[in-house]
Amino acid sequence: MKRSLRRQIERKIYQTWTSKDRMDRGTVGVALLFPKDAFADAPTWTPGPGFGALNNESVSNSAFIRDNGDGTETIVVGGIGPAQRPGRDGGVWTEEEVWTVTAPVEAFDGCGVGNSVQGITSMMDEPDAVIHREPYAGHPLEALETYWENFEKAWGFQPEGELRFEGGWPFGEGREWAYLVCHPGSYHDEGNEVVLLDRVARLADLFGAEVRVYPYNLQKRQINGPLGDTLRRTYIRNVKNAPALRK
Question: Quick one: 128 exposed, middle or buried, by C-beta within 10 A (0-12, 13-18, 19+)?
Answer without folding.
Answer: exposed
